[in-house]
Amino acid sequence: MFDIDRWGEIFQSMSKNKLRTVLAGFTITFAILLFTILLGMGNGLKNTFQTFFSRDAENAMFIQPNRTSKAYKGYQSGRQIEFTNEDIEFVEKNYGDKITSLIRRNRMHVDFAYKNEKDDYELIGVDPGIQFLEMSTPFKGRFINELDIKKKSKVIAIGRMTEQDLFPKGISAVGKYINVGGLAYKVVGVFTDPGGDNEERLNYIPITTFQNIYGNNDDVHQINLLYNPKLSTEQAITLGNNLVKDLKKKHTISPRDQRAIRNTNRAEVVQGTGQVSAGLDMGIFFIALGTLIAGVVGIGNMMVYIVKERTKELGIRKALGATPKSIIMMIMLEAFFITSIAGYIGLLIGTGVVKFMAPLLEEYGIMNSNVDMGIVIFATILLMVSGIIAGYLPARRAAKIKPIVALRDE
To answer: What pTM was estimated for this model as a whole?
Structure first.
């Protein structure tokens, strides 16, 4: 392995056949390069998909009333279903043991103004549990609390981007009064949200304040809830289906009407996310496997060509006393050296390309493209071993050739 004379022969052979050596190495370099890039982009797609569905708590459920699509028990289709506080009490009574937080959500668009700055934002009336459902984090002041709900306080928690839009740089919104549709609300907190800028332009007031000022009623536009995180995915899906079924019965809606009450259940999303992620993993695996197989085949073909090209040289070596073992070892070491160097170059170029492309890919929604170095190194080692095997098989055949036959080869 560390025979200086043998390595000298290998380097001499490679230097005399530069094109052959470059072509053999290019096969390995390209295979590892392509494998690394595909792996990085595949991981980026997975990260994008998972990030998109991680903006809300995983145990969240959103129940939205809509218009009926089927006539039922004397009611015509197209009837608008409306939730009220009574529905909240109904859900609490029948499913309270499976729910950790029940949240009313009403929303409308309205003009916000502070001094000379003015813009249109979404105003949302909520219960305090929305903070944990949306995973919003106050970084100034506080969020809406139960005391605000009880007193129907005219207070508001605004998003980070709302503060940035309306208030001068360096001025905190907390404690200030802003004009919301002609009414003054005191800012009690500013929050951040993992959903990004759009989510940080949302603004929350107590649901009781919303119901009192904007309608003087107990209407609920949407029922949100957090179910017990100890429930399995199947149990959470069953909970959502049963809840919708009971609400349909309460509002005299056909059980077959799929439009009247819509439920977005994060348990179903998580289940679907897992299936899509598994599909992406499988797709990446087969693409990467195909790339590696192509590399192995390329190495094998190149080594067969190399040995064929050197048949006369090998015959001379045998005539001068070279043993079959030494010939096999020489060809295998040459294959090992070429695959090692070429594989390492492909690894360096591939990781460099992925790092360079990462910011560009983010513009197209592919987030956090990265490469698991352990997998890439394993693939490189696999190609190196394949190169040795690919070199061994033709070398073994060449070592069996009789010198007189080899010398006649053209």
So the answer is: 0.64
